[in-house]
Request: fold
Amino acid sequence: MMLERWEAEARADGLSEDLIQVIAGRIRGYSRLSPKSRAESLEGLWRRIGRSEEIMPITFKTFEAEIPGPSETTGVVVESSKRRHAASPQAPKVTPETRADPGSQESQTEQDTAPITAIEKQPKIKEPAALDAPISVLPGIGPRHSETLARLNINVLRDMLYYFPRRYDDYSKLKPINHLKYGDELTVIATVQSMRTRNLSGRKKQLVEVIVSDGSGALRVNWFNQPWITKRLKEGSSIVLAGKIDQYLGRLIMNNPEWEPLEQQHLNTNRIVPVYPLTAGITQRWLRRSLNQVVMYWAPRVQDPLPQGLRSSGGLLDITTALMQIHFPDTWDDLERARYRLAFDEIFLLQLGVLRQKRAWQERSGRVFETSVDWVNEQTSRLPYSLTDAQQRVFQDIRQDLNSGHPMNRLLQGDVGSGKTVIAALAVSAVTHQDAQAAIMAPTSILAEQHYGNLLNFLTKRGKSHEITPAPLQAEQVRLMLGATPDPEKHEIRTGLAEGKIKLVIGTHALIEEPVNFNDLQLVIVDEQHRFGVKQRAALRSKGSNPHLMVMTATPIPRSLALTVYGDLDISVMDEMPPGRPDVSTYIITPQERERAYSLIRAQIQQNHQAFIIYPLVEESEKSAAKAAVEEHARLQEEVFQEFNIGLLHGRLKQEEKETIMTDFRDGKYHILVSTTVVEVGVDIPNATVMLVEGAHRFGLAQLHQLRGRVGRGSDKSYCLLIPENVNAVENERLQVMTETNDGFILAERDLEQRGPGQFLGTRQSGYSELKLANLSDVKLISNARSNAKALYEKDPDLTQPENQLLAEALAHAWSSEKGDIS
Reply:
């Protein structure tokens, strides 16, 4: 029995038939030999194996770490070869890359249908260091396969354990053949009755037809372009098939099902089967088998970072069970419990990290800037309008921060057009009127120029009464610094900042890339904060001594996400629009009604307005999207809007070219701008009144809301037209929400539920490993993890108690070596 199983494994692993027969012949007569003859037989067999140099890569791989001893053997014959190889100076060099290519369908599927009798040997490395060992220590994974797996962000053993399935196929249901129905997705156990191979399409394709039976009936099974299957299947052998029941000419069939021999461990059939994200060169069966070996060996060796008391009170699985069940679940209930435990870990560690960051910030000292009620009244009286209740509430928060003696660390989130710039100007005034300096960083030149114009207008002009409300700053005290700023002007700005003559500088990355030094930087404002990384914000902060910090975003962030990911920040929300700004009318139209949209655009341009036409990214390929935009731009210019000037904006353009096009559009040189989603957030084009979005179902609601916010910036009636790619998508409930509300926070909550948190995070917590399982719309999970994290942190903030030592290590792994974003 053992010999037959080894022969099957050897053939699956691609060993030559000649060598298999030599080994099998020696072993069959082994029991009848004397001890001396047995030794001679094994010596001769070893010399024969050594000459072939083909069994070694298949049976084992040497490790720099210690190899487990004989007690961990997986088979007598293989283990004997391993021990003798280790002792023999003539042992052939191991070359694991000669194994079957995991991206090759034939070689891979053949080896993966061989019996898995035990876990392959793993390197004996002490936990937890073992989990940070490169995956190349695993049998059969050398440099080439390591490079392929790296594309999946699998570099060390820990990555494999935490590389979770994207979905699961339920093949745990068994039915006899005579009970099968069309559309069933299940597992069938049957015996091979007959098989044949025939050519299709003029010998270019081959079809393997197999008839199987289980005593209750017969079923035809087809495999297309997999002729090697006939080498593995034998008439009379029992197999397990898993897949979907189809129909052909009135008869039930199975096309291209997963299959495995009945007697082996089942990873692909007769169970809930994990389905993993793949990349070129890796197939599902190979990756599933590799992960099974790693999970079954290493998961029991992972030490649980959560204290026993926390696990018990929360009803959480232990980490070993969770890891094994998330990859190879026994039941759907087991899978759900595993997912909950691992998602809990993600939120729990995230919360501990942000609590630690908040404490670090609060321990710093910041300069105090007091602002009297009379001063506030003076500043607001200079405005041509009254502040909304939301603006007044937020500015009060900022005043308290500036007067607290600790650096302000506040996130200001407000919907498009809610008046964040005015609040930024008031904050600048509060600091500069006490002779300190402020800096505002924007992600693009056009946004920086826009802020410069608005702030210059607000800060350097007198109010309604020249005598009572003088301007806070002079024009020469407010400067704009961009990458394109001429060198002589840059030198002048740098000198003015160093001497303290310039009180406010607005710029782009040039503020941190240039050798800019401030005399007394006390306020840093970062606009569209998700566009900047941790290091960029830190670089600007470092130019002052614990300056106050305010980051702004026009992307409404759901409350559950804000409390979780931005827990270290004080959050202000501007959820009220200034009076008089009309809502943008939003409509969903079918592709067949596209001409109606063109007619509206034409009519608006004739009234001296402008329009955007947006095209989606296709398969996240910037190149594809640019090509589509280029083609549509040409078609619209030549066939639809011949009388108008149409601009083109896409991701292949250089940043300078993008900004030139946006500036020309703002200045009226183009009537229509055809673009991909690179249209800059926050760009103010008051004259634009139509936003047409093609392929609208491809966008998230938050992204559609941002695009809609590009129009309606003036007092004229504005429109947003959404065109899905087909009629069916028009009924998409997700898009219908866009026609029902202009409230970005409602749309953000819906988007979080449907598409996950990715688009809200940006580079905010770049020090933290990504959330793989946690659903940030799961309020119950978040509340549970947050409350537990807060309670534990209050008792042991530095995690120095013995029961929290493993938790401290897990926190260090979850957060990268770089300091997290404390902005």
